[in-house]
Design goal:
- Belongs to the glycosyl hydrolase 3 family.
- The protein has 795 residues and is α/β, with parallel strands linked by helices.
- The chain has 24 helices and 29 strands.
- The strands form eight sheets. It has a six-stranded parallel sheet. Strands 14-19-18-17-15-16 form a six-stranded mixed sheet, with helices on both faces. It has a four-stranded antiparallel sheet with strand order 23-22-27-28.
- It is globular, with a radius of gyration of 27 Å.
């Protein structure tokens, strides 16, 4: 009898193996839906929950003596947890403790991802490939990749086409190394510069954010189903859902207090645009909205995203945010309930691997979560895998990674993005551009020669030759000049200060270039929370790190830290013409600098080619046209100071007026432009209504240059409060000296709409004011038009 049973089991296993070998989900000729249905029907509950688990990836390999192999931990995760993905497999930074030596270089990365996929395909029952998810907002966060300016700098270009090219390059580098999901775009509104993650955003305006976000999505995912499978694109993950960037007091991940109308009018606007474009993944936020944590917000995650908007991708928690329902928000009593609440709210996948897993299994067995809901979540994750073509070919060409990653074209593109992001804030008496006949130049400041300080947060370790600092950029530009470098002081630490040496250098120079600002540079001494956010350095540290921005580094003031302002004041006092260059991640208070420094350039975090780019602008080889994507305040007491607030107009304070120091959209050029001939017409009716505008812009200077033409609207009479001014179109256009170009804009009803008293999205009939200018305050042309009827915007 025992022999018969053994034979029966052997025969059953052979038949089952044969059945799986010929399973329909392996047939590439079938539709994604048919393949998902077939695979889902074959899966056990344990395998389904495993597909929703995304552990930390960098623990899944070990490297010694330049040889990397998959770890025993990874083999265990496949065998016991049936994991569906990994986050940050290729990530390297102080938190992961992966360095240039212990991290993976591009060809090593491609080799490991191949081995990772090969192992799961051959050593799991169903052979389901993994989603390999990577940080990617200003370059793939891995060793040897191209480092672009951070998002706040990208937005300063006001050039969505350029940002799409950047995103295509990032996606190509990620995919060439074997990963297949890129985290981005980040569409959080940055209304409070005290918040630590302003640098990761596209600024304060929903329309600008939306246009930049759509460029990232198109660049990452391509424009067709075939693009996703061609080995050059990745699935995009939008962050953070929803309204993450306006927590009370600027505290990262804190409570958010906004009304439903503001939420949908502003914060959800770029998310809706991303969903309409076909974003494949959305990440929740650490914060809460009106008392409901984002990771538990069923009304937004299910009712809005799924039912109203038709989002078809998967929702993933931010790292540890499911556990945070218990440990941070305290809305549940145990891990099982945390998993149940998140799953039932609409979270499909768990980033970090500790939020679902056993806790979710227990919730299902306790009837707190239905298996139908589990199937729904798994279906969404598997759908993305099939769309990426991973079941048919999860592998990459190892040699190709070496030629694709950080290739010359991508390096040149990084320089172009940096060039277009540089924003000139002041140029008194046309001090800039500087003469190339200068013989003696002083380069001074905390950020003049600090490579990591110009790269921003979420940056991997860098080989020194990969990064061009500001000092190196000036040396490259002016090899014949005597360039004297004095650091003068650090960003925060005051024990590393030598202002007398800076004064001496400035006095002996024809021009002093002072490079100050902030830093998001992490070091291996910094302590980190479980989520990866940095812990603020103690005042008792022997030497304070430069880090004053980046995730976890919220601020209560916005002054230049340490003795930086004292250094600038001392240099300006020498009488030597002084140029202030700012490298930083958030708006800072620049009142004294703006009044006393003759010239100011804002470069944000300009990336690996930042030094060359800033030098090109300083010496006139590139005419700056960057524009501020955020308002720069005069005082912390003014906050919030964003331009597109609701009526009425803001009143002045006793001490100062209510206006920012530099307004949204502001930036100077070496050229001058004249605006004329604004024309407007309204065509068609109802949902097909189009408002067409045209104007002429002439370069009236002797220098070719770019102008950023900005279109603002105001609904003159609205049933609910509406913005005093709202960006609804822009174009960066190159115009030669003496040339005139015609600029055209088309405005659709959704750009005219608001959410009325019943929370219906409607473009209301009546008068609209059109304002065209070079910033939100520098309005050159105005006109009005009438909308003859109410137009309901379909969800």
């Amino acid at each position: 009898m025992k022999k018969i049973c053994i034979c029966f089991l052997l025969i059953s296993n052979v038949l089952l193996s044969q059945e799986l070998k010929n399973a329909a989900y392996k047939d590439a000729s079938l539709s994604v839906e048919a393949r998902v249905d077939d695979l889902l029907a074959l899966m056990t509950l344990e395998e389904k929950i495993g597909q929703l688990t995304t552990p930390l990836g960098w623990k899944m390999y070990t490297k010694s003596r330049n040889k990397a192999v998959i770890s025993e931990l990874y083999k265990k995760e496949i065998k016991t947890r049936h994991i569906g993905g990994l986050w940050g497999l290729l990530r390297a930074d102080p938190w992961t403790q992966k360095t240039l030596e212990t991290g993976l270089h591009p060809k090593e990365a491609a080799k490991i991802t191949n081995e990772i996929q090969k192992y799961v395909m051959e050593n799991s029952r169903l052979g389901i490939p993994l989603l390999l998810e990577e940080e990617a907002m200003h370059g793939h966060m891995a060793v040897g990749t191209t480092v672009f300016p951070t998002a706040i700098g990208q937005a300063s270009t006001w050039n969505p086409d350029l940002i799409k090219k950047m995103a295509e390059a990032i996606a190509e580098e990620i995919r060439a190394q074997g990963a297949n999901v890129g985290y981005g775009p980040i569409v959080d509104l940055a209304r409070d510069p005290r918040w630590s993650r302003v640098e990761e955003t596209f600024g304060e305006d929903p329309y600008l954010i939306s246009e930049m976000g759509k460029s990232i999505i198109s660049g990452f995912q391509g424009n067709t189903a075939e693009d996703l499978r061609n080995g050059k694109h990745v699935a995009a993950t939008l962050k953070h859902f929803a309204a993450y960037g306006v927590s009370e007091g600027g505290h990262n991940g804190g409570a958010v207090y906004i009304g439903e109308r503001d939420l949908f009018q502003n914060f959800m606007y770029p998310v809706k645009e991303a969903v309409d474009l076909g974003i494949l993944s959305i990440m929740t936020a650490y914060s809460s909205i009106d008392g409901i944590p984002s990771t538990a917000h069923k009304k937004l995650l299910t009712n809005t995203l799924r039912e109203d908007w038709g989002f078809e991708g998967f929702v993933i928690s931010d790292l540890g945010s499911i556990e945070g329902l218990l440990g941070s928000h305290h809305i549940v009593a145990n891990e099982e309930d945390a998993a149940a609440v998140a799953m039932n709210a609409g979270v499909d996948a768990d980033l970090g691997g500790n939020g679902f897993d056993d806790a979710l299994m227990s919730a299902v067995k306790a009837d707190k979560v239905s298996e139908d809901r589990i199937d729904e979540a798994v279906r969404r994750v598997l759908g993305v895998k099939f769309k990426l073509g991973l079941f048919d070919n999860p592998y990459v060409d190892v040699e190709n990674a070496g030629s694709v990653v950080r290739n010359p074209d991508h390096i040149e593109l990084a320089r172009e993005v940096a060039l277009q992001s540089v924003t000139m804030l002041k140029n008194e008496n046309k001090l800039l551009p500087l003469s190339k006949n200068l013989k003696n130049i002083a380069v001074i400041g905390s950020n003049a020669d600090m490579q990591y300080n110009q790269l921003g947060d979420y940056t991997a370790p860098q080989a020194k030759d990969n990064i061009v600092t500001f000092l190196e950029g000036i040396q490259n530009k002016m090899p014949q000049a005597n360039i004297r470098y004095v650091k003068g002081t650090a960003v925060r630490d005051t024990t590393q200060t030598n202002i007398p040496a800076a004064i001496e250098a400035a006095k002996s120079a024809e021009v002093a270039i002072v490079v100050l600002g902030g830093s998001s540079a992490r070091d291996f001494k910094t302590e980190y929370q479980e989520t990866g956010a940095a812990m603020v350095s103690s005042s008792e540290d022997e030497i304070l790190s430069d880090m004053e921005s980046g995730e976890g580094y919220d601020r209560s003031t916005l002054q230049l830290m340490g003795k930086q302002l004292e250094l600038l004041q001392a240099v300006v006092a020498t009488g030597t013409p002084t140029v202030l260059v700012l490298i930083k991640g958030r708006p800072l208070l620049l009142n004294w600098s703006s009044e006393n420094a003759p010239a100011i350039l804002d470069a944000w975090y300009p990336g690996q080619e930042g030094g060359n780019a800033i030098a090109d602008v300083l010496f006139g080889d590139f005419n700056p046209a960057g524009r501020l994507p955020v308002s720069v305040p005069k005082s912390v007491g003014q906050l919030p100071v964003y331009y597109n607030h609701w009526a009425p107009e803001r009143r002045d304070y006793v001490e100062i007026d209510a206006k920012p120091l530099y307004p949204f959209g502001y930036g100077l050029s070496y050229s001058e432009f004249e605006y004329s001939d604004l024309k407007v017409s309204v065509e068609a009716k109802g949902v097909n209504t189009k408002v067409n505008l045209s104007l002429k812009v002439k370069n009236i200077s002797d220098k070719d240059g770019d102008e950023v033409v900005q279109l603002y609207l105001r609904d003159m009479v609205s049933s609910v409060l509406s913005p005093v001014k709202q960006l609804r179109g822009f174009e960066r256009v190159s115009i030669k000296s003496g040339e005139t170009k015609t600029i055209n804009f088309e405005i659709l009803p959704k750009e005219l709409s608001l959410f009325n008293v019943d929370m219906e999205q409607v473009a209301e009939s009546g008068e609209f004011k059109v304002m065209i200018g070079a910033s939100s305050e520098d309005i050159r042309l105005e006109t009005t038009f009438e909308l003859s009827e109410n137009i309901t915007i379909n969800k």
